[in-house]
Each structure stands twice: as C-alpha cells, then as structure tokens.
Amino acid sequence: MGLKTFKRGVHPFGGKEITKDCPIVILDAEDIMVYPLSQNLGAPSKAIVKKGDHVLMGQMIAEAGGFIGAPIFSSVSGEVTAIEKRLTANGSKVDSIVIKNDHLNEKVEGFGKERKLEDLSDAEIVEAVKNAGVVGLGGAGFPTYVKLSPKNKNDIDTVIINGAECEPYLTSDYRLLIEKPEEILMGTQAILKIFPNAKAIIGIEDNKPEAIDIMTRIARIDDRIDVCVLKTKYPQGGERQLIYAVTGRKIHSKMLPADKGCIVDNVGTVFAIYEAVYKNIPLIHNIVTVTGEAVNKGANYDVPLGVNHRYILESAGGAKETAVKFISGGPMMGIAMGNIDVPTVKTTSSILVFEKDDVADAIETNCIHCGRCVKACPQSLVPQLIGQAMKKQNVAEFEKLGGMECIECGSCAYVCPAKIPLTQMFKLRRVKVREEKAKQG
C-alpha cells in the first residue's frame, strides 16, 4: 500500500536541511514591542489599553473585533507608548499597540496556572482556547475556538493534526514534533475531549522519519490517536488536500471540514491549545524558522510576538551581502517583504532569505498551452483557461471555471514555463469577487 496523498501537486526543492537539526532557541524580547491589531482572519481586534497604561505579560491589550476574531495579549510587561499606524509584513500600515518593555516580565494573575484536563468540560476547553486568542498557525489565522465549535459536534469523527509542513524550507512544526511530542499529544487529547465520537490522526510527511518515529511511539498510550505517514509533496499540508489524503473525503470552497466530519489543526496550533488549556498561557509566542541560502546561520527561534523581523534575523547572524529577497513565510505562499523592519504576528512562521529573486527576474511570455498548470493543480482546475477569462475581465467565466476554488498554493505559477503569475492573478480576482458579492449583500 502506497503512502497517503492527494492527486497532482508539485515537488519543489525542500531546503529543510538548513535548519531541520537546529533545536528551538528561546529569543528574548526587544526594548520596543509592536502589536498590530490585524493578526487573524476576520475583524481586526480592538485596543482596550491607552497610551501611558502599564501592562503585564499575558495581559489582554486588544479584544476580539467580532465573532470571527481573537484577542491580543502583551508578551512583555511595560508601558504603552503609542497606538498608531505601523508597517506590517504585507506592506500595509495598520493600527498597532506599541509597548516599551521594562524587562521585568511581570505576569498577569493566573498566568501559567496549571489545570488538569479531567477537571474541564468541553465548553470550558473551548472557552480557554477562545480566551487565549489562539488562531490557526498554519497560515490562515482563523480563530481556533470557532473551528472547535461546529454545530454538528457529535458528527465529527476525525480530528486531523497537520504535521505535514509541506512548505519548503520551514522546520518550525518539525522541531515542535521532535522537541514537544508530549505537549502535542496532550493538546490533541484536549481537542478529542470536545469531540467524543472522534479519533485523531497526526499526518506527517515521509521526509520527517524522526518525527514519525517519536509521535508514533508517543501516540501508543492513547488508542484514539494514530499517526498517518504522508507522501512528501506540495501542497500536502493544504486543508483540503490533507483531508482527502487521510480520509478520502472531498470538500470545496462552500464547505467547512466539519461538513465532512473533520476538524483540522496545525501542529503549532495544537501546541498553543496545550498552553491555553493546561497552563493558562495565552498566545504570546511562536516558533519562527530563519533560513534560506542567503542567511549566515539557520535557526529555529521561540520568539515573543511583537518583536521585529530584522531583530530575529540579526540574532541568527544576519543576512549575507548577496541577499536580495526577504520573505515572511515560505517560498510558495509567503509574503515578499520590501522592508524587514516589521513586527512578528501570530501567523509569522519563517524569515526566508534568498540570493536570487526568481519572481522579479522572470520574463513573462505568452502561454504555450503545455498543460503543466493543469497537471500541477491540486484542485483539478484549468489555470490556463481561468487566466484567459481574467484577461477578458469575464467574472462569470472566472467563477464558472472554478476560480473561487483556487487555494492560492502557487503550484501553477511554479511550473509555468511562460512565467505567467497565475496565482497572483487569481488571488486578486478572488478578493474582488468577494468584495463585489459583499456589496450586493
């Protein structure tokens, strides 16, 4: 029997050898910490502190801006010096809370107070996750408590823990699996307590044998938890692709995983759930990989949220003089940064530095109708035709051809010999379609 996987996809260079053997190192906070209020999918958070306020580590400084929202907490103790627009990794300026770190690390009352899972009801577990501001750390930043509160709770039969980490170069999830397996197990057990009819499956790609061995051994203590070995392929960690690989079930853009009896959470998210439920620690830190051919030294850092990208990079020895491109995240779905003096947020996963900018250097030519994009698309779309519909400004045709089913993985653009920026084109059009539909009600 072959390894579990999905149809199509691509095989980009992995690059994980740069940091896969680098243990997680805890990084101290900076003197000045910046907390953008837009850190999750949904409405931006609302500041509940003002200039001059003294705050404690673990104190809520911004509340959720709506049901699809999450609070933000200070990762240091100190003084609020400003609430102002600050530049973020995606190039936009958003309202942000600026705190001057007093380096005393005074914690809010109850921070780190241990709790036992058996003492908590399923509702209390969800509430703990909600109050801790946990969001999906696999990229989207969707508030986790919403995902753990489906209407059909008793129909959930499969909880999938996403340990695939298919994005090239990134090793933060891998290091968590290696270094914090018990915590990942306990976080998974917390999720399972919410869903009494479910079993959990931890999906890990076969290029991570040590993680597979460790988690398989740990999972033996709970007969509701198993490990599924996945084929190494991109985007194996995509939610729809992972669900199909593990269960054979298909979902589309108008469905939630819960509609097919599944809940999917990233390894980093599960670790955050562990801290929220068992330790009463809100989401104030994350694991960030510093990597790429143009870094002087690769590293995996446990960083307090709010520190600067440049500070993290310099802590790893900085970039080489040959560095020309900086990405927040991975090479396939990350954000190219024109300025690295921007704060880390909940979903920051990596700082990637390259000596060559393949996108900027690419010369776009006409489509040669080779069909490579079709063979690569994990959603079984025909990117070539969708691109033609876009050039004609034919929105109806764009939707008819499945443009809204695109998961923006970048596979089509990666294989395109004509260097057509298909993914970016689709991403922009999808945003416009959503905006137009929102106006129409």
Structure summary:
Helix content is 28%, strand content 19%.
Distance between the termini: 49 Å
Number of distinct helices: 14
Strand content: 15-25%
The global form is globular
Read across the widest sheet, the strand sequence of neighbours is 1-14-13-17-15-16
Mean pLDDT: 95
Based on secondary structure, the structural category is alpha/beta
Number of DSSP E strands: 17
Low-confidence stretches: none
Give the fraction of residues assigned to helices.
Answer: 25-40%
Task: Please compute the radius of gyration using only Cα atoms.
Answer: 21 Å
Largest sheet: 6 strands, mixed
Explain this structure to me?
It is a single chain. The strands form 4 sheets. A 6-stranded mixed β-sheet has the order 1-14-13-17-15-16. The model has no long low-confidence stretch (mean pLDDT 95). It has helices spanning 122-131, 144-147, 172-179, 181-194, 209-219, 239-247, 267-279, 309-315, 358-361, 372-376, 383-391, 395-400, 411-415, 422-440, and strands at 24-26, 32-36, 46-47, 54-55, 60-63, 72-73, 78-87, 93-101, 158-162, 199-205, 225-230, 262-266, 285-291, 299-304, 325-328, 335-336, 350-354. Strand 13 (285-291) and strand 14 (299-304) form a beta hairpin. The longest helix is centred in the C-terminal third of the chain and has 19 residues, at 422-440. The protein has 441 residues and is an alpha/beta fold. Helix 1 (122-131) crosses helix 4 and helix 1 packs across helix 7 (267-279).
